[in-house]
Structure formats: structure tokens, C-alpha cells
Specification:
The chain is an alpha/beta fold. The chain contains seven helices and six strands; from the N terminus they run βββαβαβαβαααα. A six-stranded mixed β-sheet has the order 1-2-4-3-5-6, with helices on both faces.
Length: 188
Amino acid sequence: MPYCNAARHQFHYRDEGSGDPVLFVHGFPLNGTMWLDQIERASPQVRCIAPDLRGFGLSDPSTDRVLTMERHADDLAAIMDVLGVDRVDLVGHSMGGYVALAFAERYPERIRALAMVNSKSTADSEEAKAGRDMTAIKTVIQGRAILAREMANGLLADEASPWQKARVETMVEETRVETIVAALELSL
């Protein structure tokens, strides 16, 4: 599995196909494997790059107490530099959409197209921020398994297969608790 050193951090990533590069940014608290089906289908036509963000998946743990969207955006730019990629079609899911927007603000010249999946361009409400705080506390006290089940139920349709639910639950359960808390501390 490929790794690259960028922004003084080691990142795991997938890089398949050739042609115009598409950069896939995963949502919270997932990792780049959420894009495996899209990579399989798109890689015959385009170059698909799907990194695990700082602290997520197989990338190095993060020492950041708060993982900001700007930090992730800068990491993506550094990963692109290491991989020799100047411009991308950027696809962000949920939190990855927030990262994509931060990237677009900081590096507009490096984007050809932007797609946000199950994301939004506005800040979270006070109620949503309080919900993030409760999720962080609950995860620290009760562990990741409960969050994993909640995420699988929230992200997938009722008729999703047990395999699909297991895939989401595995991604969540493999995310470090400190990463979950740091990502939930973001200020949007």
C-alpha cells in the first residue's frame, strides 16, 4: 500500500488509473476505502487518488487537538505536490466536502471541478455543534462501536446489505478515538 510523506506527516493513499486526476476526500469518521467502488468504476477513464486524511485510516496519527478543514486542505495540496499533480477534479463527501471548500478557497488554481456529496457550504447550527460535542463525549465514554453502528445506520439505506454496513462500521471502528474527538472539535 502506498504512503507518501507530505507536510511532515505520512499519509496512506490509493492511486489508480491514468488520465485527468480526480481527488476523492472521505467523510467523517471514515477513510479512503469509502471510495473503493467509485475508484473501481472510474479508474479505467481517470486517475483516482483517495488519501486517508491526517489521523484517519492508515495515515499517521495526528497530534492536533483540533483537526481543521484548512489543515486537511493544506495536507491535500502537499500530497498533490508529492504525487506530481497540479490540478484535480475534487470530490468531497460530508466532512470531505468541507475540506474541499477549504481547499477551493486556499488553492482555487488547483481545481478543475468541485463536487460535494452529502455536504453543504454553510456552517453548522448551534444545535449541530452541540450534537458534535455530545458525540465526542459519548465516543470517549462508550467507545467507537456505538458510533460505528449509528454512522452505518445514518449513512446507508435500510436495505443496505450486511456487507455494506460492516464496511462502514469497520472504517469507523478503526478510527482513533483522539482523531474522532479532534475532528468533532472543528469550528465551522
